[in-house]
Specification:
It is built from 14 helices and 15 strands. With 399 residues, it is of the alpha/beta class. Strands 3-2-1-6-7-8-9 form a 7-stranded parallel β-sheet, with helices on both faces. A 6-stranded parallel β-sheet has the order 12-11-10-13-14-15, with helices on both faces. A two-stranded antiparallel sheet has the order 4-5. Helix 1 packs across helix 14. The radius of gyration is 22 Å and the shape is globular. It starts with 5 loop residues before the first strand and ends in a 10-residue tail after the last helix.
Length: 399
């Protein structure tokens, strides 16, 4: 590489807002700076921000604050002086991790001065549009807005092959580069004393199988299927515990459902945890991660669980299940509660199998952020070289 790069990492969410993309942005910035680059996170302002905790610069631009459980700010990048602040920093490349406000901000910057731009498509936005936008006209506008932001990028990345299907639904017709996310949890064996501490705290007997769901508490993650499968297992006389780790817009409804299903005595609700070491300990205290989401394009939690040798149960054909061999590096089922219950019934008391598959997952599907960002950094240089070699810097910008 000719020189260390100066890179703007754009994200519409950043801690204290916690989701997969905010973790991705933080990991990219951290690793890039450790590799000698100058990476700056560009993200909307948040009234609860504590940016001083991070070892890299975080540039916050104007936002509208909407008080919700998830704590998202809505970026408002329309102040003209903001565009010049990015231009004056002389970034070599802009990398947005969502086709939303920050991507539009990068478009406004490019109208002032062309800078090579990459966009990573992480999320199936058609789910959110269908749920949150009530009118056909609103949906058309949302699709057009996202598509323009995606098309404006000089290169589009996806985190899995299955992500491309979602992009096509938005109307994107261009090429993509598959660039998987990494995991910020190191491979390690969690000491038994820490596992025992968690089990003791939650009164979990040693011989009882432990399932875990980790992620946002929203229905389109297929949480309902987990709960209904657990009802089937309990009805058949099987004992287990289900750890529910996370928070989100539907958490109250989730609690109401598992109580209505009569499985409240099997559910351990731990809610929101920000301590990454503690989250990894919860994975280690569990026999299997239940992640039946067909919404996620990559499923960071699958690699997180694998970091400490915990296997996952995933929906066959889902993006999260890409690269998983059934019974080898994970377990696969169909997208219904009966199938989840059937697979769990066959493996939940087979500790040797669970340990073997978990060990295989750690060895074969785990990707560190160092490896993931090293690959991205090589691609950055190609994007930059191609940008200038074909004269994009002097072409009229149409976005």
């Amino acid at each position: 590489m000719d020189k260390s790069l100066k890179i703007a990492i754009g994200s519409d969410a950043f801690p204290p807002t916690t989701d997969g993309i905010s973790n991705v942005a933080a990991s990219y910035a951290d690793i890039l700076n450790k590799k000698g680059c100058e990476a700056v996170v560009v993200t909307p302002k948040n009234p609860n921000q504590q940016d001083i905790k991070y070892p890299f610069e975080i540039f916050r631009y104007k936002s509208w604050w909407v008080p919700t459980r998830e704590g998202y700010s809505i970026g408002w990048p329309f102040k003209e002086s903001l565009h010049y602040e990015i231009v004056d920093r002389k970034f070599d490349l802009l990398h947005s991790h969502a086709p939303l406000a920050t991507s539009y901000y990068f478009r406004l910057v490019n109208r002032v001065k062309r800078i090579p731009t990459v966009l990573t498509y992480h999320t199936k936005y058609e789910y959110d549009i269908a749920k949150r936008v009530p009118t056909k006209a609103g949906k058309r506008f949302a699709y057009k807005f996202l598509l323009n932001n995606i098309n404006a990028a000089d290169e589009v990345w996806v985190t899995s092959e299955g992500s491309l299907e979602s992009l096509r639904k938005l109307g994107y017709e261009g090429d993509c580069v598959v660039m998987p996310n990494g995991c910020d949890m190191p491979k390690r064996d969690i000491p038994k004393v820490l596992v025992d501490k968690i089990k003791k705290e939650h009164h979990i007997p040693d011989d009882v199988p432990v399932f875990i769901y980790a992620g946002r508490m929203i229905w389109y993650k297929n949480i309902r299927l987990i709960l209904e499968a657990c009802k089937t297992l309990k009805k058949s006389g099987r004992d287990f515990r289900l750890i529910m780790l996370g928070f989100g817009a539907d958490e109250t409804a989730v609690k109401l459902l598992y109580r209505a299903l009569g499985i409240a005595d099997k559910v351990i609700w731990v809610g929101k945890i920000l301590d990454r070491d503690l989250i990894q300990q919860y994975y280690a205290a569990s026999d299997i991660l239940l992640f039946p989401s067909t919404f996620d394009t990559n499923g960071l939690v699958v690699r997180e669980a694998a970091s400490c040798g915990t296997p996952s149960l995933l929906i066959r054909g889902s993006c999260a299940a890409e690269g998983i061999d059934d019974g080898e590096t994970g377990f696969l089922c169909e997208e219904n509660a009966d199938s989840i219950a059937e697979v769990l019934a066959g493996i939940m008391n087979n500790r040797k199998l669970l340990e073997l598959v978990g060990s295989n997952a750690r060895d074969k599907i785990y990707i560190s952020w160092d490896d993931a960002v090293s690959r991205a950094l090589e691609r950055y240089q190609k994007v930059i070289n191609d940008f200038y070699s074909i004269g994009k810097s002097s072409e009229e910008y149409k976005y």
